[in-house]
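Hi L.,

You mentioned the student needs an example of a multi-chain input paired with its predicted structure. This one should do, with 638 residues in total across all chains.
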Amino acid sequence: MYSEKVMDHFSNPRNAGVIENADGMGEVGNPVCGDMMTFYIKVEDEKLADVKFQTFGCVAALAVSSIVSEMAKGKTLKEAKAITKKAAAEALDGLPKEKMHCSNLGAKALAEAIANYEEKRDGKPRAVAKQTKRKRPKRHITCSHCDVKNPVTANFCMSCGEKMDH
Amino acid sequence: MKFVENQPSDDTLDLVCRVCPLHLLEPGDKLNCLKKGQVLEVLTDYDGALEDIPNWCQKCGQDFIGIEEDDDCYKLYIRKNK
Amino acid sequence: MKNVYMDHASATPVRKEVIEAMLPYFDQHFGNPSTVYDMGSKIKQVMEEQRAKVAKLIGAKAEEIIFTSSGAEANNLAIKGAALARQKKGKHIIISAIEHHSVLNSARFLERMDFEVTFLPVDEYGLVDQQRLSQAMRPETILVSIMHANNEIGTIEPISELSAICRERGVIFHTDAVATVGNIPVDVNELNVDLLSLSGVSLDAPKGVGALYFRDNLRLMPLIHGGIQESGRRGGTENVPAIVALGKASELAAKELPDKVNHVQGLRDLLVAGVPERIEQVKYTGHPKERLPGHASFCIEAIEGEALIFMLNQSGIYANTGSACASKALKTSPVLVAIGIPPALAQGSVVFTLSNSNTVEEIEYVLEKLPVAVDKLRSLSPLWRTKEAA
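Structure written out for the whole complex:
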């Protein structure tokens, strides 16, 4: 089911632990769903001097946490931000299809920790992508004469027969 | 096809849901346990039995009495002759 | 220790005596039981002898046994076969919420055919309440299916009491006894059931063979239409070697059951006593007393089941889990959810199912390695850290 690399990182996880007073912390996942990862980072000269993780999850989740922490340690913030789920899975010589979501979680947890650090460093909350409310199509139009609701495509009112003003 | 009503019988063989050709194999076994003159009631939901069983009776020298239609099956009556 | 196998609910090694009994039917006595010449009729006779052995194990008559390819097939035939044969009478079925997938999905299939299914809830031990069953029954109820024991939590259901309620009302009662036949005494008359499924897997027989008991010429719509095999109830050229294996295994099980029960129960009790002494925050799931004698199931806080299984595997220990990640569907075990285990705790599920081959030394080995594995996973777990800090 799992590659040798995955089993190695599972049995001998690199960088497991906690950084007290970390410069950045990122927590993703949910124990209810079966996977939860917390990443801690120490930043010096805009480089990840130390990375540690704590993970509740399956073999894939633990292996992904380990490899991502290894890939990120010593990198610049920019380089670390570029670590994708694909890169993590490849570094582990692949993951079973149903476990690919674990690699997504790992990349996300690291990104969260970095975002958390940048928030603290810059003193302002991170830019949240504006949630545009989906525009609902207008379906009805009210007749100005008798106040009855008509379909928006109506040219004449269904009730009083008067011309609709669009 | 002879139709009967309220035909008394000495034993029942329930073949509802059973597939062809069981309707030709099991009545023989069951008749072996009856005495000459006794009547076997065969229950079946298989349309083919309406033709097969009277023919089988003719071939084997048994008396085919008739059929009665019930809610969920046909009831065929055979009198043991030999 | 190389190989400490404690997942007998999934698979068991086939016994030497059973393999020896099967072998001649591959190349020496290979005839088709349906053929008319002597090679065929001899095999047919052998097959009928096996039928009698399986029937004897469960207190039934030989003609009340249908051979199938598995316990799952027996369940399918029981649920769909009995329901479809009775649909003119009514279209309401009742099953428990913790049935095996072969029963659950057979019922769901019938829902698509306009049957109505009631899923009976269970209590915190997995037991079905008799009052609840009574209340759920309607004039149009035609079938009730409650498993004899559940392989995930080990709980044994009060089948005789439940079936009595059905008998009073003329409703057919089926029980999935795949987990019990071969592990505890099972008698269809004591249980008072109309249909019962069993599998070779629980009897140290090969995979790919099972049987359905059906009382007294009960009507069943066949699922596999064929010819005269299994008296027209289940078509297909019979898997004679596997049927011979099932017969032999049933014979051995009948003889050896009392000793097996004593042996596995002793070992299981050792394991269950030892685990909480060495690991904190563990829940023993299922009923503490009314459970399969060789079955121990736990939910361990703050760790995930698949990771634990792999870690135990590295020490040569084989156990099973009902956690989400381990199941390819990534869903939390519906059985654990049904007994009220919080979803996060349900992730840390581990199940041990013992057999005659297990020993005291193996239990001691597990008690040595399990806490180490749990500690290691907890040291990596953010949930354990939070718990410890609390």
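You could point out the following to them. Chain C has a mean pLDDT of 94. Residues 16-253 of chain C form a domain with the Aspartate Aminotransferase; domain 2 fold (CATH 3.40.640.10).

Best wishes,
N.
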